[in-house]
Design brief:
Strand order of the largest sheet: 2-3-4-5-6-7-8-10
Distance between the termini: 45 Å
Radius of gyration: 27 Å
CATH topology of the largest domain: Porin
Number of strands: 10
Order of helices and strands: HEEEEEEEEEE
CATH architecture of the largest domain: Beta Barrel
CATH class of the largest domain: Mainly Beta
Strand content: over 45%
Helix content: 10-25%
Length: 197
């Protein structure tokens, strides 16, 4: 009977020591991770995605204004910032003869000072011919320079994907767009994306 009690006591001691070490290790890891979020200058992480305003101006044989929303995600790296996310904006062209709008969906990626985007636009040309509207679909790949994803200076080339085309509009476009994310003001305090375990 003493042997059974001794074995049970040893087993209990072994399990209590093992579980206490596991608990301490997990607590140390979580503490170390949470401390490193604040104190380590070389820590890398994604911020939580934010729905932010996206506004800008551009030229494409005539000036236009762009406004919409961007579901932006920022990656903080010791050397630079990366951003990514989908967006939904509208291009608004106004001149003396007609009113042209282009709602679009796209995706943008930036790394440091370089960026790229791809979007699909549905142009609606109001008052094309005495009240007759004209519609056309285009896709626009864009590349250019960026200030860490906050301000983008892009060149784009429109590729028609529908039979009808807005012939009065140039295929080449330049745009300057600002992504107004408040996380840029203080990335250390920005909400972070949870790491998957």
């Amino acid at each position: 009977m003493r042997i059974v009690h001794k074995n049970l006591a040893c087993l209990f001691f072994f399990w209590s020591v093992a579980f206490s070490h596991i608990a301490v290790a997990q607590h140390a890891n979580s503490t170390q991770y949470s401390d490193s979020l604040v104190s380590t200058p070389f820590h890398r992480y994604w911020t939580k995605q934010r729905l932010i305003p996206k506004i800008g101006v551009g030229v494409q044989d005539r000036a236009f204004f762009e406004v919409g929303l961007y579901w932006q995600n920022i990656y903080r790296h010791p050397l630079t910032l990366l951003t990514k996310g989908p967006y939904c904006t509208v291009d608004i062209f106004i001149d003396d003869s007609n009113f042209l709008i282009g709602p679009k969906l796209g995706y943008e990626f930036t790394a440091g000072v370089f960026g790229a985007a791809l979007d699909v636009t549905y142009f609606i040309d109001e008052n094309y011919e005495e009240g007759k509207d004209r519609q056309a679909w285009v896709t626009t790949p864009k590349i250019g320079f960026t200030i860490l994803g906050f301000a983008d200076l892009f060149y784009g080339y429109e590729i028609p994907i529908s039979s009808e085309r807005i012939s009065s509009l140039s295929r080449n476009r330049f745009s300057l767009v600002f992504n107004l994310n408040k996380d840029y003001l203080n990335l250390k305090e920005a909400p972070r994306k949870r790491r998957s375990i």
